[in-house]
């Protein structure tokens, strides 16, 4: 399993997931840069993602929905803040309605994904920062650690295919 560490800190309002992949940084970058590849790893296995819009440029937007086992759809969006291909990506990630209008009742996180060379492969560090301890606790209660970890762990299968 690629995920090697998961830490959440209510004081710094962060959730940090570390994963190691036996692939070069440029290959891991492509997982996020290509919407068809992103679909294979963004949602947990039982909630596959469909990417609708994908503009991985500062000011751009990525919209998607995940489909649950009973066919229910959960929409979300990224607002791209910064892109430093292939080393890092910064974006706001939020929940949305079916038209991809942000759902202001649910937390938005600022995410910094960093990809660095490590032991002949890539170390990916995923840091999500929330506006408050309550917001972080809310997503923890919703199962974000399990969902994100199982999603990230799908990257190995994608790399092997």
UniProtKB/TrEMBL annotation:
InterPro entries linked: ASHA1/2-like_C, START-like_dom_sf
Source organism phylogeny: Bacteria, Bacillati, Actinomycetota, Actinomycetes, Mycobacteriales
The species this protein was found in: Rhodococcus triatomae
Pfam families: AHSA1
Protein name listed in UniProt: Uncharacterized conserved protein YndB, AHSA1/START domain
Domain Activator of Hsp90 ATPase homologue 1/2-like C-terminal span(s) in chain numbering: 22-159
Family the entry assigns: Belongs to the AHA1 family.
């Amino acid at each position: 399993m690629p995920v090697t560490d998961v830490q959440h800190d209510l004081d710094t309002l962060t959730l940090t997931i570390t994963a190691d992949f036996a692939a070069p940084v440029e290959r891991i970058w492509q997982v996020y840069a290509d919407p068809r590849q992103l679909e294979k790893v963004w949602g947990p296995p039982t909630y596959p993602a469909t990417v609708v819009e994908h503009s991985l440029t500062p000011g751009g937007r990525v919209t998607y929905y995940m489909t649950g086992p009973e066919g229910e759809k959960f929409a979300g969006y990224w607002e791209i803040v910064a892109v430093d291909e292939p080393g890092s990506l910064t974006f706001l990630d939020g929940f949305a309605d079916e038209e991809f209008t942000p759902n202001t009742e649910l937390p938005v996180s600022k995410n910094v994904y960093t990809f660095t060379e490590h032991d002949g492969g890539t170390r990916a560090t995923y840091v999500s920062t929330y506006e408050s301890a309550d917001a972080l606790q809310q997503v923890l209660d919703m199962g974000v650690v399990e969902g994100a970890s199982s999603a990230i762990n799908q990257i190995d299968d994608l790399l092997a295919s």
